């Protein structure tokens, strides 16, 4: 039986223009009425996750910065630090097309940036040398500790709620969801997911951009 559903936000609850699916909101609330715990994990920042949690009515923990920081019951828990990422950003912006994005003012455990596609391998290699990793959420690049990812956040909740992996369902659409799709949990994705995420999914919905929520929840017998 599924007790915890972990959702990515961009591309999973929203469309390519980042507009949230009202159908997704409706079916998340129906799932909450069935006493399932819902969690969001995004590359976005705490203030944005706070707003999503509040206005959608999410009943479980929400994680910002790809799992680096948690907000639950009006308390914040920080698992990683951005000092090393900030130093690296200063270094790499002089040597590549890397440009920080404005949401960094709210980031506490990572850095977000844009860069030319041709710099990907170089920047990734340099980050690795510094114990950091970069991941693309399709909307922006994220720079953070090499152990900071969505699997870290899912494992944290597994321990906190004393769950087995088979009681957890994750839904996501892109590369920064891969770590949680590599866990032995239930995995579902919308039709707009990347080929990698589709190949790792137990269930691929025909519906896209948040409209898969009804279908996915039905598939797992939640509704
Ligand atoms: Ca996404």
How does this structure look, described?
The structure is a single chain. With 223 residues, this protein is an alpha/beta fold. The protein folds into two domains: 4-79 and 148-219, 3-Layer(aba) Sandwich (Rossmann fold); 83-145, Alpha-Beta Complex (Hypothetical Protein Ta0175, Chain: A, domain 2), CATH 3.90.1070.10. 34% of the residues lie in helices and 21% in strands. The protein is built from eight helices and twelve strands. The protein has helices at 22-33, 46-57, 83-95, 120-129, 150-160, 178-181, 195-200, 212-219, and strands spanning 4-7, 37-41, 62-64, 69-72, 75-78, 99-100, 111-114, 132-136, 141-145, 168-171, 186-189, 203-204. The strands form two sheets. Strands 5-4-3-2-1-10-11-12 form an eight-stranded mixed β-sheet, sandwiched between helices. Strand 8 (132-136) and strand 9 (141-145) form a beta hairpin. Helix 1 packs parallel to helix 8. It starts with a strand and ends with a helix. The site of calcium ion has 8 residues, from loops. Residues 8, 10-12, 137, 172-174 line the site of calcium ion.
